[in-house]
Amino acid sequence: MAEDLAHILEVGQRTVPLRVTRNRRAKRMYLRYIPTEHGFSLTLPQRTRFDEGVAFVNAKSDWIANTLARMPEKKKLRFGVTLPILGQQVQILRDPELSKPFKLTATALHIRPDASKSSGEQIETVLKKIVRGELQALSEAKAAAIGRSINRVTLRDTRSRWGSCSTTRNLMFSWRLVFAPYEVLDYVASHEVAHLRHMNHSAVFWSRVEDICPDYRDWKDWLRDHGAELYRFVK
Ligand SMILES: [Zn+2]
Q: Which of 120, 187, 230, 233 is buried deepest, with most CB atoms within 10 A?
């Protein structure tokens, strides 16, 4: 990757971020949607001229417009907004009187403000604590149910996967699962824990997942259909 230029793409009346990257190994140009930015990334092979890239993007204007219409717009993490948290619609509230850093009820997430951080950072930090606690508890319980134990649970902001399981029994999850229904966390934790027994996606693996998460097919489908929506929330 040589350069990563920020450009603006005009689509109808609106402007959309476009990142342009050169890649020596790329054989052809390609254009990709970036959910976290509600924008696009254009990759150019080393010797392709920039104006050829522009022509390539222009030729794809229908695909760009359709993709933007299909994908949800970004929503900023701010005090006052309502977010889907573990399947409930929850309003994020600033609460200076709170005796602990945060409190989650069925309808609100109260956060004690911290002047040293931006509101987006504060909210993201609290959401990560919440999802980490749920995933840790779920993973421990599911592992115990199949006679295994887990090592560490960590969070990342990965685009390619919702979770992973290492041979050293460390589990990794996307913190964005906090915006999914609780049953989706149950499925993803069950999936990764089942890898403690089977490091593959064989039929035996899936029957192990079913043992500890009987409705897993529904929640696997939910992630396939709604996964992109979990990327719409930004700091
Ligand atoms: Zn897997």
A: 187
